[in-house]
Hints:
Layout lengths: L1 H15 L14 H9 L6
Amino acid sequence: xxxxxxxxxxxxxxxxxxxxxxxxxxxxxxxxxxxxxxxxxxxxx
Length: 45
């Protein structure tokens, strides 16, 4: 629940600043973070 609130606030703020791309560095050995970001719509590149 908290993750989605933080991510949604970040995305909203980025839109107000005309930021169109967000990149994250997430450790491979942190599956809970990877899962949370994927659930929020982020993709691996």
